Amino acid sequence: MMIEANETKIGAAVRDADLRVLVMCLFQITGDRKWLAEPYLPQRDVRLIAPEDAGFSDEIAEQIWEAAIAEHGTTPVISDPGDELMVEMMSACLGELVTPEYAPMMREEMGFVSRDIDWPEGAARPSVLVVGAGASGIIMGARLDRMGLDYDIVERGASVGGVWRDNRYPGAGVDTPNHAYSFSFARPHRWSRFFSPQADLETYLQQTADDCDVTRHVQFETGLTGAQWDDDAQEWRVELETLNGSESRSYQVLISAIGQLNVPKPPPVPGTDRFEGPCFHSSHWPDGLDLTGKRVAVIGTGASSMQIVPAIADQVAELTVYQRTAQWARPIPRYHEPIPAGSQWLFEHLPFYAAWFRFVMLWRYGDGLLPLLRKDPDWEHAHSINRANERHRQQMADHLLTELDGRADLVEKCMPSYPPYGKRILLDNGWFATVRKPNVELVVDSADHVDATGVVADGQHREHDIVVLANGFEVFQGASRLGLRGRGGVNLADLWADDDPMAYLGITVADFPNFFIMQGPTTGLGHGGSAIFQAECHARHISACVAAMAAADGRTIEVREQPMVDYNDAFDAEHEHLIWSTDGLRNWYRNDAGRVVVIMPWRLVDYWSMTHDPDLSHYSITS
Fold it and tell me: DSSP alpha helices (H): ranges in 72-190?
């Protein structure tokens, strides 16, 4: 009876399968090379959430479904394809050539091989403090746990989750597909949608922290107020603020996992303190706030605003959006679509299905966009930077014109004048349809100031009951706000003054022994990928550095000055060729001097290679 029940479930489930993924599963399960040849080769499709039929005819689709049903329950022939076969499989799955450099990275990302660092036999195990229990802190904790190290995590909040605990505004959700924005080492999660809302993400982080035995290492409602390197004891003296008062401790290794998007920018206009109604940053959305029948102002039109505005427009009486700069937005037709029950069953029960679906999402939201962001010195058009970038500009402009058809006034307000992708990539989850609504007004003259009852802009005073500040976060200070003093008392805040932080690989800083940064300067993403991918790269590098120190019977490991300088010189030189350094373009990736400091200029596979195995000639290990 159980066999019949399982056959019934897979028989129904395969009808919801992504066939390009299902074919790869069949090859790994059977080892039959027919699944890597015609007529079972999927058609290339670059859409983010592509049709599940993968271009197959009904007849071929039926053959694939029947084979999956017949093979269900058999022991897979291929557990790890290895690099050479992996390249062939990736290329077949996507319908395009994938270069060999991606094979080892994707094998790790898909769980075919381990990313763990083995602790050197007999080596001493240092004590470790991790600051922050968001996604990065959870990743680092899981890696340290697997190495058998003694570690603590301090977290200023009352639970794990980081930005997904704090950002609870209406419409909050991920703008990277969930199956790419997820941990490589965690069990598959039952996501509700391809782009899941905040509550799903917070639950996922909490469950993963519990599953990986990280939560018990976290001391909540505890903040790091300062840390001083003690050169004699070769350890960090840290100062903590806990619920019970101040506390001093010592650790041999200190890791910042506080991330980049956690400190709101100051209000973008004066007078917010005089407003008589609720006025708050989007990341501080009040619990239980009733918007029904209210006149709401949203200042800003970045990523948070693009989620908030469509989510609240039908609830409020009036919604006024104050825009400084128009934004390019990519259409995502299936943004709100739930994941079918059959697909959920396959993720949980069919060998390799979750892994190959993850690969497809990682690839589609990976390195493919970066060539479009490289400046063509011979390109003469002002609103794009190369031929492919111009094609994308026209596609997004056509989408905007279609969505705003008949509203020439809104077209003028919403059409950007800068090259596409020069600012953060945004997804249209109903933005253009929302600004057309009769109770929504888009004001393009920047707000001048806020007073007791509303906002003054374009010479007019508009009355509001609630003001939402969707103006982003302070991204330049990062770990320097932790009050860190390295060798000789050097202050990290002084080194990173003028919003100009520098670190080797974004992870380590000269004169700061045994100190590591996750999501540090130069490591943000502007062309694709996910913060979780970056954090796993950081955790691997940090783990390998600490293990190398122990293997050498060392007490300290510290990056040398010259490799740090060389890395940042290479970073700056590469950015000169990319869109984000375009003259006159303002974005939150650049400091006031015009230097891009937040996002990396390299492909994901490049950064994975750069961080995977530390070049120990760039480090000094002392005992």
Answer: 82-94, 102-109, 135-147, 163-166
